[in-house]
Amino acid sequence: MTEVKIFSDGSSRGNPGPGGYGSIIQFMDSKGQLHEKEFSCGYQVTTNNRMELLGAIVALEALTKPCHVTLTSDSKYLTDAFNKGWIYNWQLKGWKTSSKEPVKNVDLWERLLVAMKPHKVDFVWVKGHHGHPENERCDKLATSAADGDDLHEDAWENG
Q1: 74 catalytic, yes or no?
Q2: Which end of the chain lies in a sparser environment, N or C, as judged by fewer CB atoms within 10 Å?
Q3: What is the spatial distance between Cα 71 and Cα 119, in angstroms, rounded to a whole number?
Q4: Which pLDDT belongs to residue 62?
């Protein structure tokens, strides 16, 4: 399996408000050459958590064959859901939290699970705004997208 690194971040101005995500995919080819691709997109009204999820989703969906992915994010919402097993409990309970409340962003959690399916994904948390080079780049991509003029509509806006 190809070893791939994904870095992602999300941003929202107002939460909810204008938002964006930024993601980077990195991998080394058989000749030791680093390949890198960046993704970003802005939305008119969204939340930070939705953008954190969407950044990871878009990068995973861009992979064209099964990979071993190390996905690095400053979002505990994203990383803890998998590293602490929350998502599996939510699914077992019909997308309800331990306090029996509906899980937020089910549409994106389900899309993320589909995007992950062909891959082995390890989630790594890093502290945001503490000098991690790729996390800082993703933050710039996300905030620039959120502040841009070509903002898309998040399906969440409509329920």
Answers
A1: yes
A2: C
A3: 11
A4: 98
Residue span of the structural domain in which 82 resides: 2-158
Cα–Cα distance, 128 to 148 (Å, whole number)? 22
pLDDT digits (tens, 9 = 90+) for 3-46: 999 999 999 998 899 999 999 999 999 999 999 999 999 999 99
What single DSSP character describes residue 157? G
Q: Determine if the peptide bond prior to 16 is cis (ω within 30°).
A: yes
- Look up 153 and say whether it is catalytic: no
Count of structural domains, the chain: 1
SS in 3 state form for 26-89?
A: EEECCCCCEEEEEEEEEEEEECHHHHHHHHHHHHHHHCCCCEEEEEEECCHHHHHHHHCCHHHH
Question: What strands lie across the sheet with 17-28, from one edge to the other?
Answer: 34-46, 17-28, 2-12, 67-73, 120-125
> Does residue 20 have an active-site annotation?
no
Q: Is 68 a catalytic residue?
A: no
Task: Please tell me which residue in 20, 74, 119, 134 is annotated as part of the active site.
Answer: 74
The rounded distance, in Å, linking the Cα atoms of 76 and 143 is 19
What sign for the dihedral angle of Cα 71, 72, 75, 77? positive
10 is catalytic: yes
149 tagged catalytic: no
> 15: which DSSP letter?
S
